[in-house]
Amino acid sequence: MNLLLYGAPGSGKGTQANMLRSHFGIPHIATGDMLRAEIAADTELGRQAQPILAAGKYVSDEIMIGIVRHRLGEPDCVPGFIMDGFPRTVPQAEALDDLMAELGKRFDRVIYLKVPVEELLRRLSGRLVCPTCQRTYPPGTASCQADASSLVQREDDRPAAVRPRIEIYLEKTVPVLDHYRIGGLVSEIDGRGTIEEISRQVLAAANGRVVKKQTA
To answer: Mind giving me the DSSP string for 34-90?
Structure first.
């Protein structure tokens, strides 16, 4: 089971990624995690990426594809994987298509958690995060359930920073989704509702089924 997972900041993508990982027993591969792993291992790709990231810039497509190639070649990816945060652009999607073909793999489904912008703004503007483990929590939560750390609000979750983040994400993501729609791979899931209901729809999409949202 090879999946691509998309969702704007605040869409609940992290929660659903964890659910898919537990359900299918396959790794959740996030762009940031891959980059940090390469840097920590002091690989050639990591050494190339480190100064670029330190300068606050995006690494090149060539470096990213090299890092993805390395990650997908690891044993835990044999039964499948959940790719999160990549590809971000159509050229990256085309390069990833070539890599998947080279590896003899294919994507089974592209899942997009769709949430209206105003709802995303509401969620992110009050979201709190654990500074230790980076888990996120809704407004009013006192401390992290995992390690009891006091929660904080990220600078980029403050209202003035939220809307530009969402707009940039949507501007870049929509063309990538259109790229995968050509092959009939995209399932759009309404990201509003209970976690359980959304998870039910995400699992149905991953398994190639269409499940309508339940109504009261």
So the answer is: HHHHHHHTT-HHHHHHHHHHHTT-PPPHHHHHHHHHHHHTSGGGTT-EEEES---SH
Token output for 89? 């652009």
Position 155 pLDDT exceeds 80: no
CA distance 205 to 170: 21
Q: Which two tokens stand for residue 172?
A: 């870049």
Top CATH class of 2-206 equals alpha beta
d(CA 64, CA 94): 13
Whether the Cβ atoms of residue 138 and residue 126 lie closer than 8 Å to each other: yes
* pLDDT number for residue 210: 56
Q: Among 7, 15, 10, 6, which residue's Cα sits nearest to residue 125?
A: 10
pTM greater than 0.90: no
Q: Catalytic residues, which ones?
A: 13, 88, 127, 154, 165
